[in-house]
Amino acid sequence: xxxxxxxxxxxxxxxxxxxxxxxxxxxxxxxxxxxxxxxxxxxxxxxxxxxxxxxxxxxxxxxxxxxxxxxxxxxxxxxxxxxxxxxxxxxxxxxxxxxxxxxxxxxxxxxxxxxxxxxxxxxxxxxxxxxxxxxxxxxxxxxxxxxxxxxxxxxxxxxxxxxxxxxxxxxxxxxxxxxxxxxxxxxxxxxxxxxxxxxxxxxxxxxxxxxxxxxxxxxxxxxxxxxxxxxxxxxxxxxxxxxxxxxxxxxxxxxxxxxxxxxxxxxxxxxxxxxxxxxxxxxxxxxxxxxxxxxxxxxxxxxxxxxxxxxxxxxxxxxxxxxxxxxxxxxxxxxxxxxxxxxxxxxxxxxxxxxxxxxxxxxxxxxx
Length: 368
Hints:
Layout: E1 9-19, E2 22-30, H1 34-38, H2 47-53, H3 60-69, E3 79-83, E4 88-91, E5 101-107, E6 112-116, H4 118-130, E7 138-145, H5 152-161, H6 168-174, H7 179-190, E8 198-199, E9 213-214, H8 215-225, H9 236-251, H10 254-260, H11 266-272, H12 278-294, H13 299-303, H14 316-319, E10 324-325, E11 328-329, H15 333-346, H16 353-365
Parallel strand pairs: 3-7, 8-9
Antiparallel strand pairs: 1-2, 1-5, 2-7, 3-6, 4-5, 10-11
Helix pairs in contact: 3-4, 6-8, 7-8, 8-12, 12-15, 15-16
């Protein structure tokens, strides 16, 4: 590789590796220098590349908050960047691992383009303004050599093509910062019908799996039940209410306990009824929230009326157009509302103005 000794350079401690028969480098970079490293590159990107990399500024405040509220245990993965000029790697030794540990000399006039991580970088820069003491902390940067930066578009596509977000349920299970996630992880150990019957990793249940619910569906429904905004702490009273509500619901949907007691296969219930679906849990929570608000003293007694609901999928008169569209469960917000409307009517609860408008539109469309 061509030497850079005749140019002004900055020198970074680095590790050298090989991918696709080409050298790349990893360096631990102080947060305070990120702006200096990347400030020149963005304004000179070709328009077609800019279109792929436009910052979504709405993401930045949330990421900044994540850093500043968790300054002792935040975690950011490596940034990935391309360097537009040859660099010089000087190994610390000639043999063994020492030949891949050393210093990287990068010309001052090299363009350095972020391929992956521009939102992390922007959030770090804003967090530094609020907490300057983060300046000496580091983030790892993976550097590739891309002399004309033409490969950067392909690199961007490749890096994102195989990036897979964790399943919603697994993300909830592992999230120790979100109070609602922690409540739901607790619920599946305290509500008998959820114990052993909840899919904790995936957001969908395979055909023959012996589970009734997904953790993500319980999370969404419980958030609705408690009118949780996502910002406040959950009180002990709310925790007790969530446990009580789902226990009472399960007591009034006998099929759930039948599956729990191995009297019926869970997959049979999922195939033949709608009450195990995320849509049904969400609808039950909507109605439950309204019921508890309307009658805090007697809501348990009134909730017993849901025993009269025929949850069978083949109850076409009840569920076609509401929970089921073209033979399939529809989890859209309108259909959640239409399903909740049925439950609210059974419980003797009035519909809100918005719910009534959706109901009137449905009745008109289906001529009922």
